[in-house]
């Protein structure tokens, strides 16, 4: 147990270091307006991830050990991926409609990119925490670190060879998340269940909705308090001011996140 905590702590500290380096690099290589676009678009991505994917993801985490013991974890994970893909499609359509109604300030191509971002990051943050839930701490930490590191490296390469825009920064993040989601999935398939029998599990959609709906309502308000206000900031003051605000809050957010995520990653596998 002590070793698990040390592994998670070291991994989280290194990951925060990579994130802070990414913050420094992004403020150096990207124009302020493009940096503001990153904060604006991640706000929209966060809405769908927190409101629609996070609650169902918590249901998935709650049942992970039971599904693993019954030998159906890969099948249930596949169903979760299908749901994430559906949310990504819905998000793209919703964002295009909101854009046409002048509620948000993005084009159709950006809406599509946000949907890819939603799918890639949600997929990554489903499969990697799943490894942690199954007590594969080292694999969880390593894949998380590589995801963060290669997100930075690929984004930098794309910006260097193409253009210093939010679009290419996001393409790097999407690519890295998809790559290490695949590695995580391949690793998951290698994990052997202690029981050789496979029990059919019927997933009750009504049960999932009853579990997820109250969480969705709570996460919507959490999203607005943590980042949703950025939409109004962009409307009133523009992307350049939003960039300054986002950078100013980023460091304090990361310090808080290291404590919250560390405790969550350590205790939740045991509690569930």
UniProtKB/TrEMBL annotation:
Alphabetic keyword roster: Membrane, Transmembrane, Transmembrane helix
Keyword Membrane set for record: yes
Top-level lineage group: Bacteria
Residues annotated as transmembrane: 7-26, 38-60, 81-98, 104-127, 139-162, 168-188, 208-225, 237-256
Residue stretches in coiled coil: none
Transmembrane helix keyword on record: yes
Name of the featured protein: Polysaccharide biosynthesis protein
Source species: Photobacterium leiognathi
Record lineage: Bacteria, Pseudomonadati, Pseudomonadota, Gammaproteobacteria, Vibrionales
